[in-house]
Amino acid sequence: MDPAQIVNRVPEGEVPKLRLEHITYRYSIGTPFEKRALDDVSLDIRRGRVTGLIGHTGSGKSTLVQLLNGLSKPETGRVLLDGEDIWREPKEIGKIRFRVGLVMQYPEYQLFEETVRADIAFGPKNMKLSDEEIKTRVSEAAAFAGVAEELLDKSPFDLSGGQKRRVAIAGVMAMRPEVLVLDEPAAGLDPQGRHAIFTGIREYNRLTGSTVLIVSHSMEDMAQYCDDVVVMSHAKILMAGTRDQVFARAEELEAVGLDIPLITRMTLLLIRGGMPLPSGIYTLEAAEEALSVAFGLPPVPPDKEDEGKGGTRSW
Amino acid sequence: MVNISLGQYYPGQSVLHRMDPRAKVLASIIYIVASFLCKNFFSFVLLFASAILLILVSRIPLRIVMRSIRALIFIMAFTAVLNIFWVTDTTAEPLIHWHFITVYTKGLYHALFILVRIVAMIIGTSLFLTYTTSPIALTDALEQLLHPLALLHVPVHTFAMMMTIALRFIPTIMDETDKIMSAQKARGADFTSGSLVQRAKALIPVIVPLFASAFRRADELATAMECRCYHGGEGRTRLRILKYHARDFLVLFALLVLIALLVTINILGARFGWLYTM
Domains in chain A, please, with CATH? Predict the structure, then answer.
């Protein structure tokens, strides 16, 4: 497969939600410390889907993310939102930031208001919405991000790390952005916390129809929660496509030091060894099911763990 | 590595870079004293020549040195103007006499002298210290030079440690400020428009988290230091042991020679009535 071909993977006739065209970006231009963070990057992000952006530290992920809402301006190339250059009216870049919501890394360190409620309302307030509208948005966003009702009147500084993280994510969701971009939203959280956050994000995507881009370096998370996957390496896009397309190229991923999920690797090995399994297995549950089918066993009864999943948001 | 982005330190391998930081502190003090010893035209010529020699020895590009001179251009212009108009010379005819403005030749010379003195002082301190000495080396040097004060129960080590930590965290906090501002901008904060009051208010979402994280960092650092059994300066050995070399004594000796020459020129100048003494 030609990588360039996969990068341009939007079906004919569909306008991508976000399109990057030949983007170049360097840091510390003209000093001995000059560094090329993005090198002629072109990419489409598909409308209404959850896309995962993965790559090593320093591969250019965070730089790329800051270009999407106009926090930084590409040196060359364009960023198109719904087919329109976001820098066409440089003075109107503030409006773009309401349409493309960005949750930066470790967002819990950006809380500042006296109450959680006021902090979540900061974005909508800047949008000059009515008080009534702000109220709806705050409770809606709190629900998506899993911030419990009784926390809303507490000081954000009294919350635990995981709670603060969710308040910060709610603060961006409250702007109801068409594109929600999250830079390592689950970094430093335990598995339960990760699951709760990603489930909330998927929920947001499903119920609002917005486009979501998640930056992460955990292949397991990407495999579990994303429709599409983009892999970056050394300031370039290495591959991009649906989850199945990307994980089918396990060897190439391993060559750049990115591990595919263990369960996927195992099933790929079993397939190579002649086992009649479907490819594209990313979770333990899927593997269980496929294996029982392969061995002709009765279907696995619904797991207790699965039942609990709906409730993990209250964690 | 952190030092590199900090202040004006300009990495290099010249004699001045390799000098012991303590010797450099002493050298810059001697150099300032020298610049105040100048009394007449010839001593200022010598001072100016020595400043140029310093630039050549340090191998720091002239445009970099000019940067620090430019920073003080206003003060320099101000003092020069003061000297031109306020210096009176009872022994000579005024150069210009127009209404209340009188300018004497002596005034022009004095303005020139003052300019040379200020430029020499800037060059002396910046080449001996800021450009060629990393901030960490500088604090080390100050700690050791001020060590005698410990006898008077001045907590020299504590102050030096505080300074080192402050220097170490300047880039970190600048980075953090940048991040927080970006994050609030992403939520629609506007730092660039509106009245002064509005702009000041717009900074609250930056300042509150910044302070919160500075305190958090301080806390974490204190814990980390205690975990590594930090208990103040007593009995503490150093990673970078400062040692005087021949070059340090050579430079200090050269500076003493400079002072001797300046004093000689002053004495000769006074005896033979050389031009425009100060």
Answer: 3-257 (3.40.50.300), 261-315 (no CATH)
